[in-house]
Amino acid sequence: MKALAREKFDSTKAKFVAKVNGSDQPRQLAAPPTNALPRVAPHLARNVVEQEKLPKAAKDGSRFSSRVTWCITKGDREDSWSWDEPRDWQQDEWDEVILSTRRSNTSRH
Fold first, then answer.
1. What is the mean pLDDT of the chain?
2. Residues 78 and 89 sit within 8 Å (Cβ to Cβ)
3. Which residue, 33, 99, 54, 45, is CA-closest to 72?
4. How far is CA 92 from CA 35, 74, 79, in A?
5. How far is Cα 41 from Cα 107, in angstroms, rounded to an integer?
6. Contact yes or no for 77/87 (Cβ under 8 A)
7. For residue 28, what are the CA distances in angstroms to 10, 20, 32, 64?
8. What angle (nearest 5°) sits at the alpha carbon of residue 10, between those of residues 4 and 13?
9. pLDDT by residue (tens digit) across 75-103?
């Protein structure tokens, strides 16, 4: 049964190929430039130029790999953090929490 269907398909294939002669295929009259920027509205073009003028970070990526340091003399100790922890730490917090965490993190590396 499959052989009969295959034979019928093969016999009609040439007739179908002859029908498709390419005349009804869409044609491209001119090739678009390959490296040209798209045309955009003037206000959008200005935005692109303005974005290029903005400073960019020298190093992109996660902030978690950045080195963090503490400074006792220039501490940001006014008000409180966004999670309502006071920025003005006490000496025992510095010694037991901040400094001990820093020491344990540097000893691992």
1. 78
2. no
3. 99
4. 63, 18, 19
5. 57
6. yes
7. 32, 18, 9, 51
8. 140
9. 777 888 888 888 887 888 888 887 887 77
* Six token digits for residue 70: 């503490």
Write out pLDDT tens, residues 51-79: 888 877 776 677 777 777 777 777 777 88
Query: How many whole angstroms separate alpha carbon 71 and alpha carbon 15?
Result: 85
Number of residues assigned to the chain: 109
The per-residue pLDDT for range 12-39, each reduced to its tens digit, is 887 777 777 666 666 677 776 776 777 8
Place of tokens 């020491």: 103
Residue with tokens 């020298």: 58
In the numeric block, which tokens belong to residue 73? 């003399």
Question: What residue has token string 């902030």?
Answer: 63
Question: Whole-angstrom Cα distance, residue 53 to residue 51?
Answer: 5
- The Cα–Cα gap between 94 and 102 comes to 10
